[in-house]
Amino acid sequence: MARERAVLRIGNASGFYGDRFAAVREMLTGGPLDVLTGDYLAELTMLILARDRLRDPSLGYARTFLRQMEECLGLAQERGVRIVVNAGGLNPARLAAELRNLAQRQGLTVAVAHVEGDDLLPRGAELDLPEGLLAAHAYLGGFGVAACLDAGAEVVVTGRVTDAALVAGPAIAHFGWTAADLDALAGAVVAGHVLECGAQATGGNYAFFREHDVTRPGFPIAELHADGSSVITKHPGTGGAVTTGTVTAQLLYETGGARYLGPDVTARLDSVRLTEQGPDRVRIDGVRGEAPPPTLKVGLNRLGGHRNEVVFVLTGLDIEAKAALVQRQFADALPPAARPAELRWTLARTDHPDAATEEAASALLRLTARDPDPAKVGRELGKAAVGLGLAGYPGFHLTAPPGPGTPYGVFTAAYVDAKAVEHTAVLPDGRRIAVPPAPVTARPAQAEEQADAEPDLPGEAPAGPLRRAPLGLVAGARSGDKGGDANLGVWARTEAGWHWLAHTLTVDKLRELLPETAELPITRHLLPNLRAVNFTLTGLLGEGVAAQHRFDPQAKALGEWLRSRHLDIPEALL
Which pTM does this prediction carry? Predict the structure, then answer.
């Protein structure tokens, strides 16, 4: 890429497979950009694409992106905007070929390149990966993307790179960084992490959403500088907001401690400084980088079995007794030979006393069944539930008739030596360039650390009287999933609030406020620059989102549940 501009403007138009279709056109027409990125992949998405590929080996990529390019490929070229996306999924070579065909049909000459080498499934035995996998993909860094752009690519499609690599790659190409420029790389990775989830950086999923018009948030932009610093902003006139709060929330999303490990660099989140520079402009600087670990994370997807769900509606009085009756009767109705390996009952007390509507007077009793054998979560399970209809609790009915069981997936992570992964940039002219791993890596013991020892606690919380109130009055939160673990970030809006939060929201207090977590291993990390406490809740999500282990399988609302919980808060903060 040309390096004549001091600032590289990188936008985002997708945070997941299924995000706002019109965002690509909105970003291309809303104001100046140099690069437009899109993140289409997630742990669940890789499983969906793997099942697509099982049905048709020519699939395995995000087809939505190809439709977006039908509308906008010519527009991007006309405006001189490079496109960098991970929409290649499990089949980046095929998507690149489809884009060339599309360009030809539209009478365009477009230089298309792709990055591959992340797919480790064909080498599973060699790399000692488990058997029976549907997909196994290493998380690659940004230097493959940079090689494609340096060779003149106007569109780069990748498979499973890290989300932040979509931003770091263009920055590497534009500024000419090398693997030794750790601080600059770390700054780009942090900017990439802010951009990767699209409108989550501009007011979407934001704890204090009522302070802004988030009816239709715009998508974020990072103005990157040669030293790795950046300004997060959005196109003028678009909805939502960019504030230190929205950026903090996204920095805490799906991260852990001070060290944010990646294939190109380990970014120190405890060094990040945020400064509001005006309306919808937040500067990120001070980011320090360390050598990356010697291994690459590998996402493994497999089928875990089959599951089914039946939801009983319990209305009015005696909810607990009605739930107990259902469980006794169901145990008698289901033949022992047909009993699934796992049966889980969950009662959601959505009922209200003296309710004005029947729905408001009703609770939901959810039965979830899982078994390797689809027959054990299918017809017999449904028959046992429906058969209670006239012999069960008063007011018996279900939210829907039971259906057949459906397969569910399991995501786990493994790690392989980065030198064993054949990271390859396939240039627009077809040449294949091997992309070497980082020449200097952290010592394995250091690389395995997720954070240093917890920093010293700040000064004491404000003195004075306390009031029982929801945590969300003084703190924001954002949560999400990482395989079977949940991430929960909580931040204070003032320095005094941070002092109170750091002393108050301990692991024990979190377990008290969120009883579901009482028996789980929980790790707490302090990030003073962000006035934040970040928790990892190990095992909360079972085998991951595809396994549908709990009511909120991606822990998206875990933070909002925490903010709704009451505790004693200094009145000075309220």
Answer: 0.94
